[in-house]
Amino acid sequence: MRKIIVDCDPGHDDAFALMLAWGNPTVDLIGVTTVAGNQSISKVTRNALSVAGVCGITGVPFARGLHRPLVRPPGTAASVHGDSGLDGPVLPEPALELDGRHAVDLIIDLVMTHPPGSVTLVPTGPLSNIATAAVKEPAIVSRVHEVVLMGGAIRGGNRTPVAEFNIAVDPEAASIVFQQPWKVTMVGLDVTHTALATPEVCARIEELGTVPSRFFGEVLRFFTQAYLNDQGFAAPPVHDPCAVAYVIDPSLLTVRAAPVDVELHGRLTTGMTVVDMRGEAPPGCTTHVATGIDVARFWDLVLDALRRIG
Q1: Residue 303 structural domain
Q2: Mean pLDDT, the chain, integer
Q3: Catalytic hit among 12, 81, 145, 239
C-alpha cells in the first residue's frame, strides 16, 4: 500500500479527493493537512474535518497549515466554492480533533518517521505547505517517493487565461516544489477538465442511497450550478481526485516526462506553468505531466470508494 499525505483546501473537489483516498483499499492515508486556497485556512480546515466525519475517517492526523501564500496576498475561489468553501451540503460538526502540530511539521514528521521512498505527497491546493516543508527540512526531498499534485496546465488556465488557480495563488511555492530534485507529477487542467461530473455520474452517485452518497450528491449539485455560472461548464470538472486516482492506479492517466517551470514575473503570465513539450525530456528530468485520463475507469474508482465508505 502506498502511504499518502493529502494536502488540501476543501473545496468541493478536495472533498472527493479525501473520500477517494480514504475509501480505496490500496492506499494508506497517513495524514491530512490544510492550506489556505479555496477559502481561508479556518474555513477549509473546518471543511476537512467535516468531510472526515461524513467519510468515517479515523486514526488519521489532521493538521492546520499556512494561512496565506509565501509572498503574495491571499486569494480565494468563493465564486466557485461559496462563502464557506464547501457550500451546498449541510456540514456536520467536526468530531475529530486537530493534531497539535502545524501542517508543515506534520508533513516533515511523517516523511522522516516512515521508511525512505514510502510516502507520496498529494497536494490538491496551493503548494505553500509543501514548499515550506521542503525548505525547512531539506532531508524530506530525498525520502519522498513522489509529489503528485493537482495544479497547473500545459495549455491555458482558469484563474487567468494562462494560470491555473492552485499555482496562481502561490507561484513562488510552486516554483520551489517543481525545482526540488524529487519526482513531481503534475495533474493539470488538460486532464481534469475532461473528468466531468455529468448528469449520468451524478445519478450513479445518488443511486447508492447512502448517507455519504447523499452528501456528495449535494456537493455536486452546488458545484454544477457554480461552475455553470462562473465558467460556463455544463458539467463541472472534478479536479482533485484525479491526482489521488493516479496514485492508486497510474495506468488511469497518460503521463510523460517534461521540464516544468513557473512564471513569477510576467505582467500577464504570472503563475503560468511553462511546460517544454518539444521532443523528449532531457536525461535526469524529474518533472512529469499528465496528458490524458481514462474517464470511465476514473469514475468507476470514485464510485467504488464511495460505495465502500457507505
Answers
A1: 2-309
A2: 97
A3: 239
